[in-house]
Amino acid sequence: TPLIIYDPNDPYPVDQEYLFAVEDWWPITIQETLEILQEPGGLGSPFVYPPQTLINGEYGNLTQPMHFEPGKTYRIRLVSMMNLPLWEFALDDHEMYVIEVDGVLTKPKLVNVVRLSPGQRVSVLIKAKESIRRNYQYHVTVLDDYVPLIPGVYPAQFDGAVVYHPDAPVDIAQIIPSERFDEMSIESLDYEPALVPDRSIFQNLTYGFTKDEIPSETINLISYRNSKVPSLLSALTTGDRALNPITYGPQTNTQVFKHNDVIEMLLWSPTQLPHPMHLHGHTFQIVETGYTNDTTGEFRRRVPSSDYSPLKRDTVHVPQGEYVVVRFRAYR
């Protein structure tokens, strides 16, 4: 269940709010999933035990209606508790404004649909219509990007009612919008121009096989393994050696930063698998996106260096064959 902390000084007052926590519920445990994934040759697939989509803890087809009253303003909180798939939220014939991303307030941004990857959160504002003569629908659509096509699972669509009056007819949309979430066009509400980096690091997000032909995700060709000694204990007890990344173990892929340095991180996804990337305890600015095979820079997008407040969030989706550049201050 999501934990929501309310800001008593929230600049976006609303009359009521609704929560959509969406997750994929698997009939097997994470340990059983790992055992299947580690079968030699990459032949094991947990999708033989397909998951079901839950919305607020219930099967998607049982999703509850939203009740709107004319002229009122509603906040819709979208929380992605997914393990794998992307999903989208849309509401027919209403204007929808993004006002918060991953706990960071944004300038209002009109959107047709919101797409989320695992770990992401978005809030939107919706102003109800003035008339009660018609009801509408909202849609939660689970996408089949980079997951196998399983009828009724990937993709899947779950429709709910937006009720103005119990006896009013329902407007059925002919087309449900679907599009990427454009982080480069959304600004954070608190003005902070693009940070100037003190240090840049490259993170190559790849997928391959171990010597035993077990599939493995890697960063810079290193597959993560827990250190034998907890990293915090090592940092507090090894003196100057705590500044040497090797202290924490070669398979931890450790980076050691100076306090308050601005770090620029290039997240590079050259394989056929996308990667949702999360940074614990920090938010980062998204300052550049592009394609890994774009040698001319034709499709590169950068935020302005001044008079612009880049979107800050803590989880970014890096699609297959693309890259994202983020910046954050190491202030913890």
Mean pLDDT: 93
Question: Helix/strand-derived class?
Answer: mainly beta
Shape: globular
Helix % is under 10%
* Biggest beta sheet attributes: 7 strands, mixed
Radius of gyration, in Å, reads: 22 Å
> Low-confidence parts lasting 5 or more residues at pLDDT below 50?
none
In angstroms, what separates the terminal alpha carbons? Answer: 27 Å
Strand order in the largest sheet: 3-2-1-5-10-7-8
Helices, by number, come to 2
Amount of beta strand: 35-45%
Q: If you had to describe this structure to a student in words, what would you say it looks like?
A:
With 332 residues, the protein is mainly β. It has 2 helices and 21 strands. The protein has helices at residues 30-37, 231-237; strands at residues 16-25, 52-55, 58-59, 66-67, 73-80, 87-91, 96-101, 104-111, 114-116, 121-127, 136-142, 156-163, 199-209, 215-219, 262-269, 275-278, 284-291, 301-302, 312-313, 315-318, 322-329. The strands form 4 sheets. A 7-stranded mixed sheet has the order 3-2-1-5-10-7-8, with no helix packed on it. Strands 13, 14, 15, 17, 18, 19 and 21 form a 7-stranded mixed sheet that branches. Strands 4-12-11-6-9 form a 5-stranded mixed sheet, with no helix packed on it. A hairpin with a 5-residue loop joins strand 13 and strand 14. The two termini are 27 Å apart.
